[in-house]
Predict the structure.
Amino acid sequence: MGPIKQAFDYTLNVGSEILVANFKDDAFFRFFGNYRLEEMFIDPDQLFVDGSFASLHHSISALPAVEEKITAILAFARPYLMPRAEAFERIAKFSTGNEALSPVKTISETYRVSERTVQLSHKKYLGYSSKEAARYNRFLKTIKLLQKNEVPIDWLEIVTIRGYYDQSQLIKDFRHFLNLTPTQYLKFKDSLCSSTLD
């Protein structure tokens, strides 16, 4: 599917199984190549010389344990995985510990390349822009903060700590990434936690 940038709904038939492979960082493009996603109308089986996704599906369907299925998928994927690009290494190594610094600007200055080159590399090797990555990382940190906080939540404090402009921007991020409001997320989280304890 490529990088998923927002929540979407799907339905599985009764008795169906789903195994989701999360590609980290540049792994999706190292596996499939740097196609523009909107132009990638290729049958995925055509990307492989001696195998296909259909044959992979049949072989892992027969395996009883999830761990065995994952091992089989990794073994299948390994020969097709391309080496990591040098341009991505610059992005992957970036770690300032200071959220106020712009990764694009810092990488640009450190490696003496234009900011536009860094932006294009980010999009090419990760499938999303550095701005989208920063938004997602801020949202993940917000979720972690909510998991630590006791009810009732001080939303103004969350907005301030995580650097949102206002509460409406926070709500937009929740709707964008989870298709839930912050309050709906807390109810959903609590229902999951209580049902696992029962």
Q: What stands out?
A: The CA atoms of residues 125 and 151 lie 40 Å apart. The mean pLDDT is 78. The radius of gyration is 20 Å.
